[in-house]
Amino acid sequence: MWSLRSDPRALRNGVLVVLAVHYLLGLVAVVASRSRVLETVTDVVFLVIGIPVALGLALLPLLLVLDGVLMLRRESRSLGNALSLLAGLSMIGLPVVLVVLIRHENPVTGALAAGLLTAQVCAGLLFLFFAAHTVLYARIARRADARAVIVLGAGLVAGQVPPLLAARLRLAVAAAEERSAPAARVPIVPSGGEGPDEPRAEGVAMAEWLRREGVAPEDVLVEDRARTTRENLRFSTRLLHSRGVPEPYLIVTNDYHAPRAAMLARSLGIDAQAVGCPTALYYWPSAYLREFVAVMVEQRVLLVLSGLTVTGMTGLVWLSLTAA
């Protein structure tokens, strides 16, 4: 609770939630073991929950592969768009690789199998931390106060706002209306510069869309220089400060991107929370995995701990097999 109140954007909240649930389940198991009735009820509840979870995990690799194929057919062929396909194939292929390595029955292949299995466990835990954090953060950010709304830009289509960007703008308008008062309107900052394949700046096109939808011109502050999310936040914050609009702010993007946008605002020292609009279901897995990878790259402590764990387990297994 202290961590959430201190800063809901911190990834440590996901770690603490997973640990809390782990120990809570352990406490339930200990208490239930003291009573036959409670033990039976607990077993039934765990069975009802565990069967769907087990089936979902068994089908997950296949679903990821199918989604990855669909993603590559509908979107551009890039590494980021292929992440769900690669994740599904790795989940299918890893057990096969482990069986092949273990069958050789020598220290090198045994240690390598232990290292791969430990790496999979570490990756799974890191993903669980990230998933817990994003679910928890989404519920908290929706209620955040704000004196301005910053809309992160996305690519234009023929110089016009595409559906994905329009969804962000609609959410921004709704968020600004919820937080506005007759005497204190909440301004909206459409933020985005002109990309190499765009005829004009994204911020300008977004501002036109907002005015067509009935947003008062004086409530729209255009930021038209940013090329990255970092620049979106920095330039928009400078613009708002120059107009006398103090923090906190609300960042609007897509749901899969909101947690990382909030973490970036935190690293820049900006008092802002982030909310996201829904994304097409087929697009979500690869996009979410891309955000997970990007966040983990910035979490050097967790990566170092995971690397030490994998290295240590590999070395211990090699030493034990060599000694045997």
UniProtKB/TrEMBL annotation:
Q: Which parts of the sequence belong to the DUF218 domain?
A: 148-293
Question: Which keywords appear in this protein's UniProt record, sorted alphabetically?
Answer: Membrane, Transmembrane, Transmembrane helix
InterPro entries of this UniProt entry? Answer: Cell_Envelope_Assoc (IPR051599), DUF218 (IPR003848), Rossmann-like_a/b/a_fold (IPR014729)
What are the BP-aspect GO terms?
Gram-negative-bacterium-type cell wall biogenesis; peptidoglycan metabolic process
Q: Does the keyword Transmembrane helix apply?
A: yes
One GO term describing the cellular component: plasma membrane
Which domain of life does this protein belong to?
Bacteria
- The residue ranges crossing the membrane are 12-32, 44-70, 82-102, 114-138, 301-321
Extract the PANTHER family matched here. ENVELOPE BIOGENESIS FACTOR ELYC, INNER MEMBRANE PROTEIN, PROBABLE PERMEASE
The name this protein goes by in its record: DUF218 domain-containing protein
Ranked from the top, the taxonomy reads:
Bacteria, Bacillati, Actinomycetota, Actinomycetes, Geodermatophilales
